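Entry for the shared binder. Reason: the reviewer on the internal report wants the predicted structure included alongside the sequence.
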Amino acid sequence: NGKKEALEADVVLLSVGRRPFTEGLGLENVGIKPDSRGRVEMADNQFRTSVSNIRVIGDATVGPMLAHKAEEEGIAAVEYITNGHGHVNYNVIPSVIYTHPEVAWVGKNEQQLKEEGVKYKIGSFPFAANSRAKTIDDAEGLVKIITDAETDRILGAHIIGPNAGEMIAEACLAMEYGGSAEDVARTCHAHPTMSEAFKEACMAAYSKPIHF
């Protein structure tokens, strides 16, 4: 709302970014040269470095420094080594900010879709209208779903509010399998749960929610 607010605190944590921990690994001894930020670039989509028998994943290479992204890359790298096939869908890597309220998102945002010229629809649902959130007295925030205007396929999900970091997994699953907002909206969700807010945001994207 543009109003300034003063907050008193005993400690302030300032995070100014992270960097790969590659110094001192002896990369130069095997012919691998990190970039100016210490990252080791992949030579192909199978996580090979410039030295073909050495693979790189996670924080040591390009992309978001997220533990779950590194885990998926590690599994895929081993699969490439053992059977020649691996898979990481970089369009479905969720991000979570562990604050209160929590913030989580996956996929595209509106600005990106506008730049790409993609026609989209939006559905949102506030936690203030969710019975579980009201019951635990934690009803700030909302769920926002972005879908393809023609196919209803979910392109992105953005959540701010209680349990956002857990709820984003439902969006990831739907997006991984090319699900639509109607697919999620027609799936029964337990009541009362926070996940109902996700269901109703999907209802709002293709039709309308029933509790707001």
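Summary line for the report: The first helix runs from residue 67 to 83.
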